[in-house]
């Protein structure tokens, strides 16, 4: 079975948020649990610094301005973002 494409399937709920990343890793959605099926995280196209995405222990996945990653996960707050400098912004969409 091919993976679900968010453009082609119908979801019951769609959530969205924006958050600044800082030197200390922080959970998306202000660390408030939000049950979902998938999350798309985008480094804002206007960012001057890169953003790193991962979990509470490590954020190894680097996003340049405008880059995005889609993650199948059951809770938005399990995704952490961090930036070594500045306060670049991440935009996110989640659905279930």
Explained architecture:
The structure is a single chain. By secondary structure, the protein is mainly β. The protein has one domain: Jelly Rolls. 0% of the residues lie in helices and 39% in strands. The protein contains no helices and eight strands. It has a four-stranded antiparallel β-sheet with strand order 1-8-3-6, with no helix packed on it. Strand 4 and strand 5 form a beta hairpin. It is globular and about 35 Å long. The two termini are 19 Å apart.
Write down the CATH class. Mainly Beta
Contiguous low-pLDDT stretches (5 residues minimum) are none
- List the domain count as a whole number: 1
Q: How would you classify the helix and strand content by structural class?
A: mainly beta
In the CATH hierarchy, the third-tier topology is known as: Jelly Rolls
Report Rg: 13 Å
């Amino acid at each position: 079975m091919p993976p679900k494409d968010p453009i082609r399937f119908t979801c019951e709920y769609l959530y969205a948020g924006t958050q600044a990343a800082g030197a200390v890793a922080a959970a998306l959605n202000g660390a408030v649990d939000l049950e979902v099926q998938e999350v798309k995280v985008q480094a804002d196209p206007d960012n001057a610094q890169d953003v790193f995405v991962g979990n509470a222990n490590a954020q190894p996945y680097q996003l340049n301005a405008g880059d995005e990653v889609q993650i199948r996960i059951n809770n938005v707050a399990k995704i952490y973002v961090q930036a070594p400098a500045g306060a670049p912004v991440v935009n996110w969409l989640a659905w279930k």
